[in-house]
Each structure stands twice: as C-alpha cells, then as structure tokens.
Amino acid sequence: LRFITPGGYTITNHFNDWLELVYVISGKAEYNIKNRSFSVSEGDFMFVDYNTAQGYSTETGVEMECFHIKHGYLEQLIPLFDSSRICCNSADSLLSENNYSEVKDNFLKMVKHFQSESDLDIIGFHCYLFMLIYILIRDFTFRNGDYRKNEFKKADKQIDIIIDYIHKHYNEQISLDIISESLHISSSYISRLFKE
User: Fold this and answer.
1) What's the average pLDDT block by block, 10 residues per block, for the chain (196 residues)?
2) Angle at 15 between CA 135 and CA 104, to 5 degrees
3) Which of 37, 72, 87, 138 has its CA 20 to 30 A from that of 59?
4) In the structure, how many helices (H) and strands (E) does the chain have?
C-alpha cells in the first residue's frame, strides 16, 4: 500500500501480526522499532518483523510504500525462513556497511507487479518477492558472532522481565493477556519468546 501522511502525524507503538516492508518515497519521519529510534527519509528501506513494537511520527508529509506479509505465509512457502534473524534497516547506523540498492530495486519491482491485475504480473510479483527474500536471507541474516545477536540478549532480558512479573504477582490471577497489557508486550510475542 502506498500512503501519504501529513506533517505532525503520529502512530503510537503497536504490534502487527505481519512482516512489514517499508520504503520511504519522500519526506521525513522518526520511527521507533524495538525501542530504538531511527530518522528515515527518502530512499530508506526497513524490514519490520512480526510482533515487533513499532511506531512513528512525521516531521513533514511522508509518502511511503508498505507491503505487509501475513504471519505464516512465507513459512509455508520457505520452511527454513526465520524472519527473526533478519536485520535490514537502511536508517540504522549500525548496519551502514550493507548495500541496500538491490533490496530497494527488488522491492519496488515487486510492488509494481503487485499493483497490476494481469496473470503475468502476478507471477512477476512472486518472482520479485522470492528474490527479495533471497537477498534478505543472503545479505541481512545475522549469524553466530554477529553484533546483532544482541537482539537475542534483549529477548532474554524481556523473558526475565516477564518471569519477574509472574514472581511478583504469583498470588494474583495471571493470564497471558494480563501480562501483555501490564508490560505493554504483545501476547503473541510473549508466546513466541517462550516457545523459542
């Protein structure tokens, strides 16, 4: 979807049950992803994983191209796909060594084919989607020894916070929804943390 937001527009932190691919066409915004702030502007690309806390506010009018992929869709097509190990955000100064031009080109071609209704363009869309996923896996998946492994340490810290909450409230009625609401963490994300 392509959308334009006015200056001074804010979306508070929220969670989505889909992967979000975002390309900034024009304007500037402040994104908050996993409690880290990023200034994004024309040409920036971001990959936001399922159930990731995110929000943004715009300084100027912003035009963005966003693509949402439902949870489970890619895992059905590519069983070994693990979105939690992908870190692709051109606005992240820690990732500046990566070349984003191939990702951006494939994303824009994918969107162009998606917007058409012909059978041939639907095939083209899937080709570019798979190519984009291939590039993300090839160039933006962190491996052992990668500094992005700290995200898993952060997950461990979140698990500790959840366990601490349970210990402090063990004599009260506790449910996944209550923990989620109290700690401002999506219930599906909590489930995924403990599953992993």
Assistant:
1) 71 82 86 83 85 82 83 76 77 64 86 84 89 84 52 59 78 86 80 70
2) 25
3) 87
4) 6, 8
In angstroms, what CA-CA distances link 147 with 119, 136, 144, 155, 196?
43, 17, 9, 14, 20
Containing 154, the helix (H) or strand (E) segment is: helix 150-168
Residue 195: the pLDDT is 66
Of the candidates 64, 34, 36, the residue with the CA atom closest to the CA atom of residue 49: 34
Q: What is the pLDDT of residue 149?
A: 44
Global model pTM greater than 0.70 = no
Token pair for 112: 């162009």
Tokens of 188: 């599906």
DSSP type of residue 50: T
Q: Cα dist. 45→16, 19, 42, 71, 114 in Å?
A: 18, 13, 9, 20, 18
Which ranges in 11-149 belong to alpha helices (H)?
A: 73-77, 101-114, 119-140
Q: What is the pLDDT of residue 93?
A: 60
